[in-house]
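Entry for the shared binder. Reason: the reviewer on the internal report wants the predicted structure included alongside the sequence.
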Amino acid sequence: ANGGTPPDAQADAEAASMRLHLEAQMERMQAELARRGLQVAELASELGTRDVRISALCHEVLVKDALLKRLGQDTARKAQSSDDGVELLLQDAMSALMGLLTRDQTVVATA
């Protein structure tokens, strides 16, 4: 006899053991694949959220740039308007002063 186990039975036992080992390994790999699939889905979702935030920030920057440009234009317009107003006031004051000087000169000339 062969010491207990016939060769065919031993080969069958080794094949069954190998099959169990391979099935367990396949289950571990499938679980790892599922875990990584979830990670990929989470990362894709996070990237989508970041894209939306980036788009919103870009829009906000464009709006603020437009508002700043408008404010700059309004400020320049107001400054020009203010300069025009000051110029008119100075012209009025100079006209009044010229009128006074002309009257004074007239008084001196007639005295």
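Summary line for the report: Residues 61 and 67 are 10 Å apart (CA to CA).
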